[in-house]
Specification:
By secondary structure, this protein is an alpha/beta fold. 25% of the residues lie in helices and 27% in strands. The chain starts with a strand and ends in an 8-residue tail after the last helix.
Amino acid sequence: MAKATRRYVCRECGASYPKWRGFCDACGVADSVEEEAVIARPRAFGVVQGGKAKPAAMTDLSVQTLDEPRRSTGMGELDRVLGGGLVRASAVLIGGDPGIGKSTLLLQAAARLAGAGGHVVYVSGEEATAQIAMRARRLGVDGAAVKVANANALGEIMAALEENDPPDLLIIDSIQTVFSEGLDSAPGTVAQVRACGHELVQYAKRSGAAVFLVGHVTKEGQIAGPRVLEHMVDTVLYFEGDRSHHFRILRSVKNRFGAADEIGVFEMAEQGLIETPNPSALFLGDRDEPVAGTAIFAGMEGSRPILVEIQALVAPSPLATPRRAVVGWDSGRLAMILAVLDTRLGLSLGQNEVYLNVAGGLRITEPAADLAVAGALLSSVSGQPLAPGTVVFGEIGLSGAVRRVARAEARMKEAAKLGFERAILPAGSEGRDLLKVTEIGGLDRLLSLFPLDDG
């Protein structure tokens, strides 16, 4: 007879413990261990009730593959992040802050795919069908042949799917609201998210439908629920953006069928999300005269080159511990750059307040931004702006040497396309014939571009 037991599982990483504890030993997150019920079914390994298990079919690498073309969602930026479009039998997890536009993006994609003859099913556990229709009317897609339903029970969802032909695209909004009737835990708990996610991923593999799962995020910005959910799916996307800005970024952090770290850029408007094929122009904005403390960074987001303005302000501090404020970049990386400038160039920035901002709300993670940050800091200290029409990129080592970065030619081509004429870049970089270049081998060469007052 089945015996009900209890165990305690971390909602962040899925680690299991026999007793409750205040923090998870596996991931170190505090107050993340929750209780869940487990049905223990003693059974021999590899044997199902009533007989032996069916053996798995074995083959070799010469098996015939599915060379079917990807199906476009009708949104070029979404297709770019997915690696070229929807892949049959794939599972995609998309997360983002509440109200950032996840449901709007997926409803627009569903409507365009349905308009191209695709069979699309949209299941919402958070909105009634009348509310979905109201949003579709606001977006101007209420005439699309998208099948919508409001359901939370996994059994009801699966029964409706099995009664009809498999859709080309199935959207579950959101996975935290779906619950399995076989578990007595509440929706959104570790057990429910894991069980429902597994069942929907298996349905995608079995039926050939592409499945989108919408996930809530924690206050740290990570998708809520066990990490095993991210391992189950083929693609993990994050929808990012600052509500004070009108653009949104869809970023791929895992993709079995395309490049990771690819981004798609959208602009939020009254009629929904509008694709932005040239995001560099959006992030740069209007630039009239060069200003001290700014530098244009030529970066890479996946396979896409993007130009963005980095702003720095160095000011005297009346405090014993000067402030360090960073928006859009790693604060630890800024501390390293400041330490290198102080040690290798003899600058006394430790007693100054330092503010760094990536304009437009974009978050930069690649080390190639080091040289642009250093240039913006030196420009702020000296009061001397960079020459007009100049882009900067390069990685700085602890020795003060400037190292080459990947895809330099693509960065230069993007800058030339937008009218930039000069580049400050590491020595020996490729594509040097595209712009007038100033090669930087060390920070002392960069400092010579910004004459400082003796005082």
